[in-house]
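Re: [ENG-882] Designed sequences occasionally contain unexpected residues at chain ends

Forwarding the minimal case from QA. Structure tokens:
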């Protein structure tokens, strides 16, 4: 069978995976929708295929300076860093930058130059910059989409750009074919099915068959806990420094 290409195909695939239409799956359409949303949310937060690194260029405006924060696009999962602001590089900027001067003066023989000492010097300069200048502290919560840069006002200059490294959710038609997402959503739907059947446990049907919602629920819950533990401990992307 072709892989799911949209949300409706994805829901049908999940139901078939747990027995439909051979078995009657006692779960409503709304409950399936809720479990798919729950699976997507967890997948975006904890699976490396559910998010991607993005770089946002932002022009400092007077409104940003007055507010004391920068409003970011909705949907970002977290902020990992803000690239050094103007005036925060002790090694110099532009024409006076150490790297620029080195390349300028050694361009003709740079291929044969021993750059070990240069590399160690640059590491030392970076270390001194970290100790003496440091990086601005930032605060962010994804539910309010506001980035606070805790730095002196001289570091935030009207008309300057800052570059923000963030993690954004993956939102394409190809997500429905992700195997982990399919398995996790199936587990959540199975767990919901078991919860729905608990009240019928012990009820005997024609032919002596009995409902066993507790077994379905216990198996699904154990699978869910295992998958979530594996995702949190082994499948995450780079740790977000600021996740709301």
């Amino acid at each position: 069978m072709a892989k799911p290409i949209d949300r409706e195909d994805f829901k049908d695939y999940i139901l078939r995976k747990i027995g439909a239409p051979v078995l009657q799956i006692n779960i409503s359409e709304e409950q399936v929708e809720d479990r798919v949303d729950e699976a997507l949310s967890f997948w975006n937060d904890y699976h490396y295929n559910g998010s991607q690194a993005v770089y946002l260029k932002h022009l400092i405006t007077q409104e940003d300076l007055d507010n004391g924060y920068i409003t970011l696009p909705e949907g970002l999962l977290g902020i990992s860093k803000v690239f050094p602001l103007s005036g925060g590089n002790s090694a110099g900027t532009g024409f006076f930058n150490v790297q620029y001067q080195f390349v300028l003066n050694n361009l003709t023989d740079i291929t044969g130059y021993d750059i070990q000492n240069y590399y160690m010097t640059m590491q030392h300069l970076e270390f001194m910059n970290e100790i003496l200048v440091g990086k601005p502290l930032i605060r962010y919560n994804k539910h309010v989409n506001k980035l606070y840069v805790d730095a002196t006002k001289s570091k935030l200059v009207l008309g300057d750009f800052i570059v923000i490294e963030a993690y954004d959710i993956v939102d394409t038609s190809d997500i429905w074919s992700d195997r982990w997402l399919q398995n996790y959503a199936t587990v959540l739907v199975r767990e919901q099915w078991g919860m729905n059947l608990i009240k019928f446990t012990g009820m005997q049907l024609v032919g002596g068959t009995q409902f066993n919602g507790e077994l379905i629920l216990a198996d699904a819950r154990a699978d869910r806990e295992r998958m979530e533990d594996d995702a949190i401990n082994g499948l995450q992307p780079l740790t977000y420094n600021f996740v709301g």
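QA comment: On inspection the terminal residues look reasonable. The radius of gyration is 27 Å. Proposing we downgrade this to a documentation issue.
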